[in-house]
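protien #1 (seq + structre)
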Amino acid sequence: MRPRDPGDFDTFIFADYSGAAAPSAQRRAIALWALERGRRPRKIRGPFTREGLREKLLETLLAATTEGRRVLFGVDHQWSWPRDLWAVAGLEGRPWRSALASLVAGEGGRPALGPPHVFPATFNRWAGSAIFHCRVKVLARRYGLPTASDWAGNPVRLTERAMPGAKPATRLGGPGAVAGQTLVGLSELHRLLVDAGSRGIPVLAWPMDALVDDGRSHVGVEIYPSFCRPARVPQSDDADARWACLWSARADLTHALDLTGAPAAVRRAARLEGWILGAPPPR
């Protein structure tokens, strides 16, 4: 693709995700919307499982690369863990892509990343601490988790302090909880990035790969739909993905995708913990 100005994109494509175990439940919950610059948003017909969504995103990125179009895409699960949780996993000092690859694969006895009914309890036993927990008692029993955590670490990323309402990475179950879909989403994100690289598709995972849009790659971001969706609009899978498209197409992305002027603590955190698109860096 020819170089473009930072923040200049042709296509915006966003998904409302699902951490459900059953493919049938995933197909009901996952919604994917796209917006071409200057046009109205449109729903991309599925239905999609998580794997099918990854394949559709990869297909879209490949076609755009061939046609010389730039894509901003996003999914509404956390794209990283808080620093203290990376430290427990023994991965704090590694670049984000390397840390993610190790987390997905499992190393040195650490369990490989997996779904909510498998990974959290196994990770807790490996770490020797009740890090992952679930407030919903029935679900906690099913997952083999406590209803509260005894972990002294910080389960909240810096970006979540800048985005009111965002939830911690270690709490499963209950309204708005995203830890479960993050566990399965990170695995799919890793596979998407690996597949894109093997096909020569330039993808920048912002801001972990770079603190600013490079103008040469497609850019993947973490979104928080409640921030993008007007308060008067009822929450739904379709509304969340649609409004993420609309918000991004109207936003000053040159500014939103640039953390180079943020305080040093924000820049350090963002390269490992990630950042939610639109969250204002604390001063």
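ok now protien #2
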Amino acid sequence: MAATVTETFTLGHSPDPDDAFMFYAMAAHKIDLRGYHFKHQLEDIQTLNERAMRGELHISAVSIHAYAYVSDKYLLLPCGASMGDGYGPLVIEKHRTPNAEHRTSNEEERERLRNRLIAVPGTMTSAFLALKLYLGEFNYVVVPFDQIFEAVRSGRADAGLIIHEGQLTYAHSGFAKLVDLGEWWKNRTGLPLPLGGNVLRRDIPLEIQSELSAILRQSIEFGLAHRAEAVQHSMPYARDMGSDLASKFIGMYVNEFTRDYGEVGREAIRRFLREARERGYVDREVSIDFVK
């Protein structure tokens, strides 16, 4: 498109260091935005999922679980993935029980968790779907992701499903890990656990879709090439994390899968949503389509 383009696109992403890192170059105009303007809208992932179901934003981060319910309105961008390659959301509890780590791998531990109340950060999150694939049906209460530690600490819930920075801070906060769902999924399938992606509305003209996809890829690549300044930009969103821990968290979820899903990443999405569909946790066939 010509440099005179002035169209503004709404861009939804979560107020987390990995998303801030990913969109740094766009927010700070470090790359050529090709005449486009972007209105950044920061919301928690559950809110972004709900807004995507209504088709409100032009571009948005969404949970891969939620993509099953918005694929009629959105295409997946080929970059911007959050994949847990052997790590991912955690189930934690307040006190370590004897041999808890041993029991997380067997049916006895699963049965124990099924009969406990688990605080979850939203039913459209990929973490919630992964936990259903791991446990089957279980008892849960929905709690904002940043209040799950307190829900478990206070006894409102027996255990918590932890996403975002809690995956690195849980032990310091006085909790014990029962299961790492990304590790479980990797051991079982050999694939990374697909957690989040970025989507683009289908009604945007094809030539503009391609340009917007290229801009996002350039933003990710700029952050990876200028890591120190991109991490510094992300620090205001690094709840309870110093720069070293924030950099570690960013490295977990902004990586080569973020630059491009590749065939492994695409197969991970297909497998994740196919298993969910087969087990009745997704109630529709999903068309997994990427921006060309």
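Residues 1-5, 100-104 have pLDDT under 50 and may be disordered.
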